[in-house]
């Protein structure tokens, strides 16, 4: 594989290989070694056209732990502001002998476009509303760590499905691994193309959460939303927010996941975000291991 662009286009065996490699990387992290030399002769660049806390930091930590030379392009201060195109920025990175470009972009398909046009490996750190593969891989890894397998697990993904690249990557990845995925959102926040997937779709969040093994909340992607898609935040929280009453419908040992950033009192209430069965912080830790695994697998020659 030259690039990691999405979970839609990769084989189940490749996903399993990344997860197995992640387990090895997690051992390195948790044994407090935090150093390998797998990338000591590689150059990694992060190119983020959209805001990020977790994804950018964890990719950068992963690259550094593995000994890479790391550069981060601050898009706001780069030649992008002088009108340079994405291809020309990519060609510049090739000329700088970059091995891996990790890109986040507001346009769906931007990572595929860059990957087709440059020699360096491209990792999609989120492209518009399309995919965010490493987020879904870390979500899947976190579930697998707890439940051993995704086969037959009932997963409920609740919230702004339409604008969520995290939802899309999880839908592809989790269904490939045999999970039984239900998505719930108000009608205005459901995409039209879910019939191409194997998910069950409902507008009733309680129905989705009933007997679930895993419940994932999603932030309202206001930056990608036209106005008027939900009547009010209060009503949205009442009907789709993760709260104690709703979660009591799930299995007793149900895991709570959220990719972050969380908006307390909107898609998730504080009691649930901080509950014992909330894995939100574990997801962040696992994100470093997943990104180490992906960097390793793409640069191994
Ligand atoms: N951090 C995730 C993303 O970039 C989720 C979110 O922003 O709500 O897609």
Topology:
Layout: H1 12-30, E1 43-48, H2 54-65, E2 69-74, H3 86-95, E3 100-105, H4 110-117, E4 121-127, H5 133-147, E5 154-158, H6 165-176, E6 180-184, E7 200-202, H7 205-209, E8 214-217, H8 233-240, H9 244-247, E9 255-257, H10 270-273, H11 280-299
Parallel strand pairs: 1-2, 1-3, 3-4, 5-6, 5-8, 6-7, 8-9
Helix pairs in contact: 1-11, 2-11, 3-4, 5-6, 5-11
- Gyration radius, in Å: 19 Å
**Strand arrangement, largest sheet?**
7-6-5-8-9
Task: Say which molecules are bound, naming each kind only once.
Answer: aspartic acid
Q: In the residues, how many domains can be counted?
A: 2
CATH class of the largest domain: Alpha Beta
Q: Would you identify the CATH architecture of the largest domain?
A: 3-Layer(aba) Sandwich
In which range does the helix fraction lie?
A: 25-40%
Please state the average pLDDT score.
96
Total E-strand runs: 9
- N to C succession of SSEs: HEHEHEHEHEHEEHEHHEHH
Largest sheet: 5 strands, parallel
Q: Give me the CATH superfamily of the largest domain.
A: Aspartate/ornithine carbamoyltransferase
Question: Class by helix and strand content?
Answer: alpha/beta
State the end-to-end CA separation. 10 Å
Q: Kindly report the CATH topology of the largest domain.
A: Rossmann fold
**Count of helices?**
11
Q: Identify low-pLDDT runs.
A: none
Approximate shape: globular
Share of residues in strands: 5-15%
């Amino acid at each position: 594989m030259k690039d990691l662009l999405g979970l839609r286009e990769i084989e189940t065996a490749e996903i399993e290989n990344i997860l197995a490699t992640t387990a090895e990387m997690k051992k390195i992290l948790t044994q407090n070694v935090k150093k390998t030399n797998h990338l000591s002769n590689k150059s990694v660049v992060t190119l983020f056209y959209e805001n990020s806390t977790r994804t950018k930091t964890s990719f950068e930590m992963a690259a550094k732990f593995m000994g890479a030379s790391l550069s981060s392009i601050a898009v706001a201060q780069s030649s992008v502001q002088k009108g340079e195109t994405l291809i020309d920025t990519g060609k510049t990175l090739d000329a700088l002998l970059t091995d891996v470009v990790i890109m986040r972009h507001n346009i769906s398909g931007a990572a595929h476009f860059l990957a087709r046009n440059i020699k360096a490996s491209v990792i999609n750190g989120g492209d518009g509303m399309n995919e965010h593969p490493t987020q879904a891989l870390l979500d899947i890894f976190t579930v697998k760590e707890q439940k051993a397998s995704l086969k037959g697990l009932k997963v409920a993904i609740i919230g702004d499905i339409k604008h969520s690249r995290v939802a899309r990557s999880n839908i592809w990845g989790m269904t490939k691994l045999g999970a039984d995925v239900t998505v719930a959102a108000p009608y205005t926040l459901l995409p039209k193309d879910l019939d191409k997937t194997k998910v069950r779709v409902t507008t009733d969040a309680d129905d989705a959460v009933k007997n679930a093994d895993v419940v994932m909340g999603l932030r309202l992607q206001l930056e990608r939303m036209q106005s008027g898609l939900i009547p009010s935040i209060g009503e949205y929280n009442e009907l789709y927010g993760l709260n104690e009453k709703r979660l009591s419908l799930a299995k007793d040992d149900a895991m709570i996941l959220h990719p972050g950033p969380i908006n307390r009192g909107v898609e998730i209430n504080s009691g649930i975000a901080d509950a014992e069965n909330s894995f939100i912080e574990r997801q962040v830790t696992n994100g470093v291991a997943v990104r180490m695994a992906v960097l390793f697998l793409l640069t191994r020659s």
